[in-house]
Write a structure and sequence with these properties.
This protein is of the alpha/beta class. It is 25% helix and 22% strand. It has seven helices and 13 strands. A five-stranded mixed β-sheet has the order 12-5-4-3-13. The two termini are 31 Å apart.
């Protein structure tokens, strides 16, 4: 399918199968981008905070940038350092994987588990920089490292256990591996306690009292990282965050509301934030309508920052260089 549209004159110039449904794959992230631009402020909300008797009570929004290794500055962790913290999670659970995902891809970094409060990108990162580093350091005792020719995958984890086998081939100077950990509320509490240096509890009781919203990263910066490298984890969690910030615990209801407000309920079947699901079905016309919403909201400099640029950056850095002189 193909559709060429001029947003200035509001004219469709060329089209071919523009109203047929196709599996959009990572083009789904365009819908996630619009959802975030229209639902979030200029920064990503990480949690609502209530301070009571010297302790912190927080209700998370699903922010994927929280303690994410690719965001070195972490303002959202500062209010919790060395303070007893209780995490108030919704009673409703988020399925670790979306509908139509390949469940046996659980150990690959492109399919980290979804959660109400991600931490360290919900994955273990092992890399060599003079010495071997493990992030989060909690997992150092749960990793077996092997030097030499690998028998199969570079990384391996059993489905139901956070025990990792990592293979390093002969040259270790540029070694880096990432592998998702199996997420649980209990593990969330352990990792946060290990980070802030204080007692951490997890509960499903609602957060009450005077709330202050704590923000972490720039919305544009988070969307840019998501789109430039087509990051599935960021896409899934940013859509969860946008929905939660708008008061939705049910992601299906949030996506339905967005499609209705965009006038696309009949044109789109939208089931996740990243495009991992084969159940997503979009028409070229629907994608053009959503791209036009982005064109109306961002200036051209911001669009270039968020989207990969042909021949210059992101997933199409080596494609579509355009005319060169």
């Amino acid at each position: 399918g193909f559709l060429l549209y001029d947003p200035v004159s509001d004219i469709y110039l060329k089209e071919w199968n523009a109203d047929l449904h196709f599996t959009p794959a990572s083009n789904t992230k365009i819908f996630t981008t619009v959802a975030c631009l229209e639902s979030l402020k200029d920064s990503i909300p990480t949690y609502d905070l209530v301070e009571e008797n010297g302790a912190a009570h927080i209700a998370p929004f699903g922010d994927p940038t929280f303690l994410h290794p690719d965001f070195p500055s972490q303002p959202a962790i500062l209010p919790l350092l060395n303070i007893e913290t209780t995490i108030h999670l919704p009673e409703s659970k988020i399925q670790a994987f979306g509908p139509g995902w390949a469940w046996d891809d659980y150990q690959y970094s492109f399919q980290s588990e979804r959660s109400w409060m991600p931490i360290y990108a919900n994955e273990v990162r092992i890399y060599n920089s003079d010495t071997l580093h493990v992030i989060p350091s909690f997992f150092e005792d749960y990793i077996d490292l092997y030097i030499g020719e690998r028998p199969g995958s570079f990384v391996y984890r059993e489905l139901d256990y956070n025990l990792f086998n990592i293979w390093i081939e002969n040259d270790t100077s540029g070694f880096e591996r990432k592998i998702p950990f199996q997420y649980s509320d209990e593990l969330l509490g352990i990792l946060l306690k290990d980070t802030i240096g204080s007692i951490t509890q997890v509960t499903n009781k609602p957060l009450t009292g005077y709330k202050t919203t704590v923000y972490n990263q720039s919305t544009i910066a988070a969307l840019a990282l998501m789109m430039q490298r087509s990051d599935n984890f960021l896409a899934e969690q940013l859509l969860i965050t946008a929905g939660k910030f708008k008061g939705y615990n049910n992601q299906d209801a949030f996506r339905s509301r967005l499609l209705s407000s965009w006038g696309l309920s009949e044109e789109v079947s939208w089931v996740d934030g990243s495009g991992l699901s084969r159940y997503n079905l979009f028409t070229p016309r629907a994608l053009v309508k959503v791209l036009d919403r982005i064109y109306d909201q961002l200036d051209w400099h911001e669009i270039q920052a968020v989207f990969p640029n042909g021949g210059r950056s992101g997933t199409i850095k080596y494609w579509y260089p355009g005319v060169t002189e």
